[in-house]
Hints:
The chain is of the alpha/beta class. The protein is about 30% helix and about 20% strand. The protein is built from ten helices and nine strands. The strands form two sheets. The chain has a six-stranded mixed sheet with strand order 5-6-7-3-8-9, sandwiched between helices. It has a three-stranded antiparallel sheet with strand order 2-1-4, with helices on one face. The protein is globular and about 50 Å long. The site of adenosine-5'-diphosphate has 10 residues, from helix 2.
Amino acid sequence: MSPPSEFRPLPPGSRDTPPSVVRPPSSSACPPCCDLGPAHQHDIIRLQDVTVAYGRRLAVDSVTAQIHCGSLTAILGPNGAGKSTLLRAILGWMPLSRGEIRIGDSHPQHALPRLAYLPQRVDVDWDFPITVRGVVEQGRYPALGAFRRFQAIDHQLVDNALAEMKLTALQDRQIRALSGGQQQRVFLARALAQGADIFLLDEPFAGLDAPSAAELAAVLKSWEQLHRTVVAVLHDLPMARRVFSHALLLDTRLLASGPVAEVLAPASLAQFYPAANA
Ligand code: ADP
Ligand code: MG
């Protein structure tokens, strides 16, 4: 149910989102989580008994968990554990066989402008002929709806996002001509231009060299200070421990969730993966 191409700009249904439910984009550094007081104390995503199946095969089974506002949460688990499926469910792209997902007080379909998705690098057609600015402009399309044209505010938001991700000088380049780290920043800039404050990232570090990974880690860490909420699928335990505040351990069912130091403590991991060298 996810878009076949990452350059198809809109998740299913979002073009139908009436302008009235589109939160006015803010260039302010303070997303809604700030208004709730200190970060990490309020839940922004609530999963209750979330169950997703492909046909008869359960991909995510009875997951109940909360993601705190302004936290950086890593989703970890083996291949086929349902990590990507869970992200897609949070985005409202997968029907639930059972359970409920709430973004704040809303159903995901009514929170789409708040939710931004960074695809797995393998799902992106890097040869697609589009410039850096062209990708970032896609972030504005859901807010435009069917009739409104790009206006000064949209150009401004694209400029701001490019500047924040240090891409202004690269904006006319084709995306295939960038380094892996720069390409990830393009997608983060698209998410910022959208006006999102909740970022769902599928394996954002996969395929990056060490300097690019360190650069991306620094960006995400700085977002925590800005009360932006990040949920990222990871494979790298040291990276999760170093950068993320919370973790979900998934293997179709939820094995553990909570502060990263507890969930990824060697004793805790040994309980689930006795053979693994944590
Ligand atoms: P992960 O991201 O943790 O590797 P996925 O969410 O991609 O896991 O997949 C979870 C399970 O669902 C796997 O068994 C996978 O084979 C299956 N699956 C994923 N996508 C589809 C699909 N489009 N159709 C059928 N089965 C799928
Ligand atoms: Mg996956």
